[in-house]
Structure formats: structure tokens, C-alpha cells
Amino acid sequence: MAMSFFAQFASPSYLGIPLIAIAIALPWVMYPTPSTRWINNRLITIQGWLINRFTNQLMLPLNVGGHKWALLFASLMIFLITINMLGLLPYTFTPTTQLSLNMGFAVPLWLATVLIGMRNQPTVALGHLLPEGTPVPLIPVLIIIETISLFIRPLALGVRLTANLTAGHLLIQLIATAVFVLLPMLPTVAIMTATVLFLLTLLEVAVAMIQAYVFVLLLSLYLQENV
């Protein structure tokens, strides 16, 4: 039973070919391409308005040098939200439940922010490792602690996204299994459990969007420290 619960997180394959590439590439096919006309349809207009609002909100605390990342952050946000939302559909696979994929996003982007800080303002970047006014005996210890916390950042990014989505999917499957088991024996309890399942599904929709936003927001905060 335990293995069947975690089987949903295994990467699917067909004839020995992993299908995770299709699951990653599928979201980009679902979005309409903006046209060159002055007047677009409602879907493209709403899509552009949402992207503009998100980008403006995300780039607000950054200076002009950080605005170069606007396209990357907006694309990553749309990609993560779409992947997370599609993973809530029945008989689908959520690539962002794989820690390797999330770390593949987190580590290069975090490393890019650190390298930008070391190139543009090395004194300020290294100054984050030692808070101002630190007593002299505590300087070596604090440098070690701040260095460790700096290198834990990408791990926290990847694990946070993976853990939240994995826990939500497991909880939905556990409650859905309970509904099917209780339905023949205790229909009233099964209906109450199904109501909880419906509310939990709505919560997971919110979690899918919030976790994508938190992932990109933390990356923008890391970039803010280094530009």
C-alpha cells in the first residue's frame, strides 16, 4: 500500500523512453501566442495583464540592473504554476515533485545571483557573511555560519517546492482512498470525507500557485542582495 502511494511520483516511461520531457514541454503549447494586431482577444489581453502585473510587482524592489531578469522570472513563474496545476488533474504526472528537477532550477539561478554579486560588488557580497558590529571573538564562527546558510539556500528552494507538492498529493490520495473504502460501509462518513477532499483540492490549487510564486520571489530577493 505504501509503495502504491508513492508510485505516483515515479517518472513515467513508454517503451523505455522517459515522458518527463513531454510533461515539461507541454505547458508552453497551451498558452496562446500574442499577435501583432493592435486589438487582441480577451484571453491574450488577460494573459498579458497578469504577466505585466506580476513582473512589475516582482521588479519593484530591484534596481535597473536587476530588470534584465524580468523575462526569466516571468517565464519561470508561468512554467511552475502551469506544471503544478496540471499535476492536480487525474492520471497526470507532476515533474516538480522530483527534487532533481527543482534543484536543477534552483542551483544555477542561485549561483548566477551569487556570481553577479561577486563580479559587480565583491565587497558588499562578501560583507553579507559578516554582520556589522560583530565582536572579534565571534567573527570566525559567524563567517562559517553565514557561509553555510548561503550554500543551503538552493537546497531550501528545491526541497520546499518538492515537499509541499509531494505532501499535498499524498494527502489527496490518502483521503480519496478513504472515501472509496468508506462508501459501501458508511455512506454518510464517506460524503463528509469527500467534502474534506474537495476543500483540500481547492487548498492544493492555492498551494500550487503560492509555491511557484514563493520560488521566484526568493530568487528575486537573492538577486536584490547582489545587484
TrEMBL record:
Q: Which InterPro entries match?
A: ATP_synth_F0_asu, ATP_synth_F0_asu_AS, ATP_synth_F0_asu_bact/mt, F0_ATP_A_sf
Give GO cellular component annotations, separated by semicolons. Answer: mitochondrial inner membrane; proton-transporting ATP synthase complex
Q: Which residues cross the membrane?
A: 12-31, 69-89, 101-118, 138-159, 171-199, 205-223
Main location, first listed in the record: mitochondrion
Assigned keywords, A-Z: ATP synthesis, CF(0), Hydrogen ion transport, Ion transport, Membrane, Mitochondrion, Mitochondrion inner membrane, Transmembrane, Transmembrane helix, Transport
Gene Ontology molecular function: any one: proton-transporting ATP synthase activity, rotational mechanism
Substrates-to-products reaction catalysed: H(+)(in) = H(+)(out)
Chaperone in keyword set: no
The compartments listed are: Mitochondrion inner membrane
Q: How does it sit in the membrane?
A: Multi-pass membrane protein
Keyword set includes Cell membrane: no
Q: How does it assemble?
A: Component of the ATP synthase complex composed at least of ATP5F1A/subunit alpha, ATP5F1B/subunit beta, ATP5MC1/subunit c (homooctomer), MT-ATP6/subunit a, MT-ATP8/subunit 8, ATP5ME/subunit e, ATP5MF/subunit f, ATP5MG/subunit g, ATP5MK/subunit k, ATP5MJ/subunit j, ATP5F1C/subunit gamma, ATP5F1D/subunit delta, ATP5F1E/subunit epsilon, ATP5PF/subunit F6, ATP5PB/subunit b, ATP5PD/subunit d, ATP5PO/subunit OSCP.
| Family membership noted in the UniProt record | Belongs to the ATPase A chain family.
Q: What is this protein called?
A: ATP synthase subunit a
The organism of origin for this protein = Cobitis bilineata
Q: Which gene encodes it?
A: ATP 6
